């Protein structure tokens, strides 16, 4: 290597923090450490400069164009010139300035011996000197640190300071857990129900761009109006950078867990995020555009999405393994990740037809061999546990009913999935949610254009407390015993009380602690029994006090669980946000005006937190509620503030939540 080239390599390694490729590298290797780099490009003693059409070459260093690199995936980048324009490979061969990110604005970058090469990810053409200008010319470049680059359009977390350690001196996790979240919803339900992504090549302007299908009178706007009561007539759908239409606390079909918001929550004390891959064949079929509606296909797609998300966070953090978002497939890995001060992301599944195990008019559509193969596949994905029963009755047991108009809609889905309505009987003691005496809520759906099979007779249910007549089936027993044998976590929520009680009977006989209720969808008597087993409980992330939405409050439910016979066994308590899960988030407290959360505030782990800003919109828990996931940093602090004399105990139990969940998982696997 020439002396001048060696000197250039040393300069790259020392000036402006830009790392140098390894000297003497035998092969070209992905350049994973250019995120945020501001550089000039030089090839054959000539610098790239910006001319009137595209980019040319000059021997004058002072005229060199300044380029900013933004990672789009490991070893890939979007490259912006000094005006912020992304450069792209044109169909005519030259590299030109574009207006927004696209496939041709993505560059795969590799390095060797102090040189870099940039190859169009879409076309495979290597950047270089093309007919006197910058284009598909096959050159290599020296990258020299510079100043004066455009900034990357991004979202700041609003968190500063040094956080407390993620584990204590005894190795116990210190931090809160979200035990129920759906950050992979962009790939759920066939891939088009949801607008927006948790991450995207091209960053926030791409991931959080509005969707035409969800704008005024689009099919997405109409569907959200049916399930969430939003206004389909006034749906501006302006995402980045104004966010006037979404995210809001009550929108259900738009992204609310962009990775920078997850980062804010982690920086403010979250230590475990349990991501539930979610699927529903019937809902998928309602969308105008979709990929496969097979629920296992949807789960596979989300598993891939989640792993690519870890790679993306690594890419935006400087290279493989450097990101704060780490997938954990064992409790040992959770502890290792927390000890590094990072966020441990565990994986679960929530769907109604797991392994294709529907029942149609009482006849199961799967076998024990299907169950065994399905469990093998889930374990290969790193899944720690799942819901044997979700919204519909299936081959394993009966569901816990939704209520009101939502219940009517889900009941229609049950009819489509199984060939029958929910079947209920009057009962005493633990019960499922009541249904209307007459089918008035179903009639409301029919008025909105929801069609039923010809000849369908609408159901009428008993008044008062009712229970699903379907309990745990023979296949359901086989599944639960197989899950216990593998140390998998059994999610009890969504099971009708008859099914849930039978599952708990099996767990009690086996002394099996791996049972959870993590988002307020189980009868308190079932919660008491699972606590007796050493199971784990979390509450839906309702507002701390009344928010006027007709829901419960987090504090009331936490106190109710503490008052159960086995409530003293709660050592750590969890949060279940259900973010992106077709459920609303907490609205602003009704008393937020008189008792507001004050900004900036000190988070539970000691960091300082200001309001989070998306583009031109500033979020405030007092006026927005939990409009997007970053506000859970605010919500946790507000929750403790609103707990009064119970505040110290609540804080202790929330910060012990990640540890309690991990201990439960360890004992289940033991």
From TrEMBL:
Name of the protein in question: Microsomal dipeptidase-like Zn-dependent dipeptidase
Signal peptide: 1-24
Keywords associated with the record: Signal
Source organism of the structure: Actinoplanes campanulatus
InterPro entries reported in the protein's UniProt record: Metal_Hydrolase
